[in-house]
Amino acid sequence: MRERNGDHGAPSRYLLRTFTGPVYHLRMILRTRDARLWGEGLAIFAFAVSLACGSEVDVDSGPDGSGPPSDGNGNGNDLPDAGADGTDVDADDPPDDTGAGLVFVGGDLDLGPGDEESDSAETWLWNGQTWGRADSPLGAPSYRYKHAMAYDPDRSEVVLFSGLEDEGFFGNTLADDTWTWDSTGWNFFDTETDGPDPRSEHAMAYDGERVMMFGGFAEPPFGGGQTARAETWIWDDGAWTELTPSEAPAPRYAHQLAYDESRGEVVLFGGRVQEAEFALPGDDTWVWDGSNWEELSPSDAPDPRSDHAMAYDSGRGVVVLFGGRGTGDTFDDTWEWDGSTWDRMEHPGLPPTPRAGHAMAYDPHTRRVIMVAGERDDGDALSDRWAWNGALWEEISRPGSVDPARSHADLSRGPVPAN
Question: Going by fewer Cβ within 10 Å, which terminus of the chain is more open, N or C?
Answer without folding.
Answer: C
